[in-house]
Amino acid sequence: MKKLFPWLFTSADRYLRASDWKDIALIKLCLFAIGLLAGMQVRDSDKKVVRAGAAALFVVTYIPLMSKYIGVQLVDAEQKE
Fold first, then answer.
1. Is residue 70 within 8 Å of residue 42, measured between CB atoms?
2. Which candidate, 8, 29, 63, 81, has a CA 20 to 30 Å from the CA of 74?
3. pLDDT by residue (tens digit) across 12-30?
4. pLDDT higher than threshold 80 for residue 4
5. In the structure, what pLDDT confidence band is assigned to residue 2 with cuts at 50, 70 and 90?
6. Environment class of residue 2 by beta-carbon count within 10 Å: exposed (0-12), middle (13-18) or buried (19+)?
7. Under a CB-based contact definition with an 8 Å cutoff, are residues 33 and 64 in contact?
């Protein structure tokens, strides 16, 4: 896999070096939310509530994660110039 996407793993390593425990916790919550959306096994009457909660958790965690990721990539790009 590293041979196919070396830039992806390098990028992820840079992001993790710039992260703290709160960022890792957000990643885990984000993945939990998307897992709930993908594998929900609840009654049909409760699916809308669970789906809405999981989608909200995903959006709330995804936006700060991606903004930090983009920021780290921009700083690295500036340092290379």
1. no
2. 29
3. 888 888 888 888 888 888 8
4. no
5. low
6. exposed
7. no
Q: Under a CB-based contact definition with an 8 Å cutoff, are residues 67 and 77 in contact?
A: no
Asked if 15 and 74 touch (Cβ cutoff 8 Å), the reply is no
As a whole number of Å, the CA-based R_g of the chain is 16
Burial of 26-62, coded b for 16+ CB within 10 Å and e otherwise, reads bbebbeebbebeeeeeeeeeeeeeeeeebeebbeebb
What pLDDT, in 10s, does the model give residues 65-77?
Answer: 888 888 888 887 7
In whole angstroms, give the CA distance from residue 16 to residue 23: 9
